[in-house]
């Protein structure tokens, strides 16, 4: 028993020293955010456009910080500044409400020219993976399909964003296990309701009674990431169809995405425009109504 205790203490100490080293080596931005980068955000990232001026400055800082500490490398595909900005934006969106957050468990994002398999091969009939958080010898790395990365920021109606999906897995993993229970973000009083609700929602997927991506029925970890895509992509619809889940996820991410979504729509639409949800009434009388907590 004494030997087991000694080994356990040694393992904790080693983890702490490695973690502390990573934290001490974390670099912070010192340059002004470039106009080129800001233009990419304005043209590609609707989340950014719904932020206040102060929030935009904070988002830009986190983009710079991420790219200073995490490489974006192309594997048989070119990587440009737009690719880097979109990867960084995918990382920042879920943790935007946590200014001190650092992805100390990630050092490199690998972009592939398309889908791949679990052996990281890009040819063959089983190449159906668009994103993956590395394990084993790939620990500290993330693999993303470059087309899937861009698609996540082009199509805002399909409730899918591969890169955000994988960064949510990485957030989930920060407590040591990818299990759909992000204890590093989830306050203790919400843990049991969270698990119970996930089980209920997975059962609805099995019974074909849910509009959540069926892949979320795979396990709790995949459900968390799939639901997060929906939460950030279509918050109004998510809140309307899954109000209890929306409320809990707002607590997890400390963000009310309905408010951000309404700001975005107010920028894109006039109050008398037809509502984009397809209700047939004016925006101001439908999704454009003020939202109150």
UniProtKB/TrEMBL annotation:
Xref: Gene3D superfamilies: Collagenase (Catalytic Domain), Glucose-regulated metallo-peptidase M90, N-terminal domain
Pfam families xref list: Peptidase_M90, SEC-C
UniProt GO cellular component terms: cytosol
An example molecular function term from Gene Ontology annotations: metallopeptidase activity
UniProt name for this protein: Peptidase
Species of the source: Labilibaculum antarcticum
């Amino acid at each position: 028993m004494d030997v087991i205790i000694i080994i356990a203490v040694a393992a904790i100490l080693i983890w702490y020293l490695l973690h502390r080293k990573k934290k001490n080596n974390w670099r912070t931005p010192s340059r002004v955010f470039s106009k080129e980068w800001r233009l990419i955000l304005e043209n590609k990232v609707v989340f950014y456009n719904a932020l206040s001026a102060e929030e935009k400055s904070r988002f830009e800082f986190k983009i710079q910080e991420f790219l200073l500490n995490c490489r974006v490398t192309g594997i048989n595909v070119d990587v440009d500044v737009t690719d880097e900005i979109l990867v960084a934006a995918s990382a920042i969106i879920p943790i935007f409400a946590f200014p001190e957050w650092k992805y100390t468990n990630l050092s490199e994002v690998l972009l592939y020219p398309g889908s791949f398999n679990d052996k990281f091969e890009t040819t063959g009939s089983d190449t159906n993976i668009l994103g993956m958080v590395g394990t084993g010898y790939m620990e500290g790395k993330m693999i993303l399909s470059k087309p899937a990365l861009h698609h996540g920021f082009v199509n805002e109606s399909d409730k899918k964003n591969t890169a955000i999906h994988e960064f949510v897995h990485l957030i989930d993993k920060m407590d040591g296990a990818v299990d759909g229970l992000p204890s590093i973000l989830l306050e203790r009083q919400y843990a049991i309701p969270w698990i119970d609700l996930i089980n209920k929602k997975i059962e609805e997927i099995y019974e074909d009674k849910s509009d959540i991506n069926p892949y979320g029925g795979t396990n709790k970890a995949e459900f968390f990431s799939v639901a997060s895509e929906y939460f950030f992509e279509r918050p109004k619809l998510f809140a309307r169809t899954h109000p209890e889940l929306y409320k809990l996820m707002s607590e997890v991410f400390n963000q009310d995405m309905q408010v951000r979504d309404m700001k975005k729509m107010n920028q894109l639409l006039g109050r008398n425009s037809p509502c984009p949800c397809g209700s047939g009434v004016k925006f101001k009388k439908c999704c454009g109504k003020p939202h109150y907590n």
